[in-house]
Design a protein that fits this description.
The complex is a heterodimer of chains A (about 250) and B (about 550). With about 250 residues, chain A is mainly alpha-helical. Chain A is built from 10 helices and no strands. Chain A starts with a helix and ends with a helix. The chains are: A mainly alpha (about 250), B alpha/beta (about 550). Chain B: It is a single-pass membrane protein. Chain B: It is found in: Endoplasmic reticulum membrane.
Chain lengths: ~250, ~550
């Protein structure tokens, strides 16, 4: 293991041992420092997978950081567009619009931006990763910062982190399907409708979850569980579709 | 080629993370100073009173609280000095509390949960006499003890019930609540209590002049009706004193209203002046009454024929007592008492005379009329109480709520006082005339009595905590202004042996905290999840060999250098 890893784990072990064996007074004094512990836990749950994905896959070897950054910027731009659209339309039309704007933004990031010479395989992963990371930061960092440091313990932020994980899988699947739709010209005709259906399902995921929460009255843990399951299913399907579409081009 | 790329990647990554590490650490240190308080549960709590008598401390001496919650099911011999003990009134063990206070055992704090029925403004009944007695005992214990930890009262609600059930469960399992085992944390963040610099007592008097026949009104005699309106209890923010002495105040206001109606017409104006006084400082040996009397012009004081003091007339059935300090053989006392008993007979209940001598050497003033007697003014107290209350007792305790006051009793008392006064003023003693008959224009107004009683039963009235322009005082003044010709307010400072401290009401934040072990466990789970994710991704995208080579890199590098 690298030296910094050893250093960090050593430091951490010391901190824990010290906290454990110290007197109750000191324990209590460390108490409010420990509230940052929960924040740290939820932060690594929310943002860790992005870093792990980047470092584990060949993305890091081919230095696709630039692509991810560009995708994140495009995401922020679409978020801005969505915010300005808020005032002008009603609830239902708004939800549909949001899905559409998301897809449009992703299309722009995938197809329109000029990237360095990266294979399609890695392109969609990098774009999806950047997109999901920007989404997590925008929607989850602020509530996490404000809420998880408080004294009161809730499961909310852990659930939010799990949702971020599901969102990462969704975004990468959507990016994969997107690259299939827009970047690959020769696809087997039979698979095209399946690709489009899956893309539509993933794109409308936010409205599906809000429908479940509001109309069906599902609680947050149930919704997150549903999201995780669906994300795995969708990832599997997208993976299969990608592999199937890859064969003719070989 | 691939190896070079790999090492370059590794170098990049390690540099990046190494530079991040101190930044992260710095951030953590910087923001560790900021503590956020957003509790899921906030409860209103009321502090036990803190006061000194001649320098001797009483009551709860501390106000801020930041400890774990504990319940009575804790293990024997457990250290509670860093815990707040939550005691519901229903399960209170007086002996236990007494032990804790008398043996000066250290306790982080005490939170007493009262049933909702004791909340001022809550009309619903249902609690038993037993709880009231228990509450009275508890109050006495707490008021007369010197308690070195914060004591707070709160009303039971759903949130406190769930918290208490949880805490009991944890305690029964034998886990002592500390920073490592989680549970509930109770936080009340208020500043330390300070002495109230110069508490003021405000006396309100209303003067209703009689009709001057030939001479001027200065020669007319005066009859005074007096009631003290302030209270004292274990929790000053809850001390509404419906019976002691809300009932007296209401009775006085109604008598004033009735006589103002009579006196408004010159033809029915009596040949006596009427002086109505709402005095403060009642629980403190009637200091307000004494100051008020001393402030009166001497001629005015000498013109007072007699004074009727009203104290607790709200919950009696058949017998009302007239307490006097002059011997019953005294002619004036006889006259007054005869007047009362005649009226009482007509109204269908009984009055009894009780004589209690004043002990000049004893500074304790048991009844309000004693302050008059000390200045040689004939006076009597009409009350339902058989014996005089002890110092600081029966002056508005927690159990003195609206539910136990009966408007009918007050109305009967009003009739008694008004009729006997009227018969004396208009010279109808012994005659069977009912001036304030029901269904007449001079009938006692039940709604008036009820509405004032309801209002007073929701207003805590502990004198040191009332400001000079307190709405209550303004309201009483305005009411007397409606019924009397001249109203004056006298404000004095409450000196003497009593000192009070502020901070009577606070907000309790209840935090549900997770233990450190939970956080560590979560960290472990997350760490292994990320490692598994990492391995999974490496295997699927780069193959198993790559995964193994990641962990075999350092030895291969060493071999390369060698």
């Amino acid at each position: 293991m690298e030296i910094w890893e050893v250093n960090q784990s050593f430091f951490f072990f010391n901190l824990v041992a010290f906290a454990w064996w110290s007197s109750p007074d000191l324990q209590l004094a460390l108490w409010w420092r420990m509230t940052l512990f929960h924040f740290f836990n939820c932060a690594i749950l929310t943002f860790g997978p992005h870093a792990v994905y980047y470092s584990a896959t060949p993305l890091s070897e081919y230095d696709t950081l630039g692509t991810s950054v560009k995708a994140a910027v495009v995401y922020l731009a679409t978020a801005l567009v969505k915010m300005t659209k808020y005032g002008f339309q009603s609830q239902e039309a708004l939800k549909a619009m949001i899905g559409f704007i998301d897809v449009a933004g992703l299309y722009f990031a995938l197809a329109q931006l000029t990237h360095r010479n990266i294979s399609q395989n890695h392109k969609f992963q990098a774009v999806g990763l950047g997109w999901a990371f920007a989404d997590s930061v925008l929607h989850r960092l602020a509530p996490l910062w404000v809420g998880a440091r408080g004294l009161e313990f809730t499961w909310d932020y852990v659930l939010q982190g799990l949702e971020a994980n599901a969102n990462l899988v969704f975004t990468i699947s959507l990016a994969a399907l997107g690259s299939l739709m827009w970047l690959r010209k020769n696809k087997p005709k039979t698979l095209i409708p399946i690709i489009y259906t899956c893309a539509v399902i993933i794109a409308t995921m936010p409205s599906i979850t809000s429908y479940l929460r509001r109309v069906m009255g599902w609680h947050f843990p149930k919704v997150v569980g549903f999201e995780l399951m669906t994300s795995l299913v969708m990832a599997f399907i997208s993976c299969q579709l990608f592999i199937l579409c890859q064969r003719p081009s070989l | 080629m691939a190896e070079e790329k790999n090492s370059k990647q590794r170098h990049h990554r390690s540099m990046f993370l190494e530079s991040m590490y101190p930044v992260v650490a710095l951030m953590l240190v910087l923001v560790a100073c900021v503590e956020l308080c957003d509790a899921a549960t906030v409860v209103d709590v009321y502090r036990l009173i803190q006061y000194d008598i001649s320098g001797a401390p009483f009551g709860s001496r501390f106000s801020s609280l930041n400890h774990h919650a504990a319940s009575l099911s804790f293990q024997h011999g457990a250290d509670l000095s860093r815990s707040v003990l939550i005691l519901p009134l229903r399960e209170l063990d007086i002996a236990f509390v007494q032990d804790y206070i008398s043996q000066k055992q250290s306790l982080g704090g005490l939170l007493i949960l009262l049933p909702q029925t004791f909340r001022p403004g809550n009309i619903g009944g249902g609690e038993t006499q037993g709880l009231r007695i228990l509450l009275a005992q508890l109050e006495k214990l707490l008021l007369h003890g010197n308690i070195p930890f914060p004591v707070y009262f709160a009303f039971e609600n759903e949130e406190t019930d769930t918290m208490l059930a949880d805490v009991k469960k944890n305690d029964a399992l034998g886990q002592q609540a500390t920073a490592t085992t989680g549970g509930y944390k109770l936080v009340i963040s208020v500043s330390e209590p300070r002495k109230i610099a110069s508490p003021t007592i405000t006396n309100i008097q209303g003067w209703l002049p009689g009709s001057r026949a030939d001479g001027d009104s200065n020669q007319l005699s005066t009859i005074a009706v007096v009631a003290s309106y302030d209270t004292f209890g274990a929790a000053p923010a809850l001390s509404v004193g419906s019976d002691s002495n809300g009932s007296g105040v209401v009775a006085l206001l109604e008598v004033a209203r009735l006589f103002s109606t009579l006196y408004s017409n010159p033809k029915t104006r009596g040949r006596y002046n009427l002086l109505f006084a709402l005095t403060s400082g009642g629980p403190y040996n009637y200091e307000g009454t004494q100051k008020w009397l001393k402030s009166l012009d001497q001629r005015m004081r000498e013109s007072i024929d007699y004074a009727i003091c009203l104290n607790s007339v709200g919950s009696w059935d058949n017998e009302l007592l007239v307490h006097v300090s002059k011997p019953p053989e005294n002619a004036y006392i006889k006259q007054i008492f005869e007047g009362f008993s005649n009226v009482a007979e007509d109204l269908g209940f009984q009055v009894s005379l009780k004589h209690k001598k004043i002990n000049i050497s004893n500074s304790r003033v048991a009844w309000e009329h004693e302050q008059f007697s000390r200045l040689r003014v004939t006076a009597a107290t009409v009350s339902e109480l058989l014996t005089p209350p002890e110092l600081l007792e029966s002056a508005g305790s927690l159990s003195d709520t609206r539910q136990h006051v009966n408007e009918d009793s007050i109305i009967k008392g009003v009739k008694l006082v008004a009729e006997s006064l009227a018969r004396h003023i208009y010279g109808h003693q012994g005659k069977d005339i009912q001036i304030f008959a029901d269904n007449s224009s001079l009938a006692v107004n039940r709604f008036y009595v009820k509405s004032w009683l309801d209002g007073l039963s929701q207003t805590p009235r502990v004198a040191p905590f009332l400001s000079k322009n307190e709405p209550l005082i303004m309201a009483l003044k305005k009411e007397l202004e409606d019924y009397t010709a001249e109203v004056s307010i006298q404000q004095e400072s409450l000196d003497g042996i009593f000192t009070f401290y502020d901070s009577t009401k606070a907000s309790l934040n209840i935090y549900q905290v997770a233990s450190v072990t939970f956080d560590l466990l979560l960290l472990l789970v997350l760490g292994s999840y990320l490692i598994m994710l990492f391995s999974f991704l490496v295997i699927t995208t780069r193959g198993l060999d790559d995964l193994i080579s990641i962990f075999r890199r350092p030895p291969s590098r060493k071999m390369k250098i060698a």
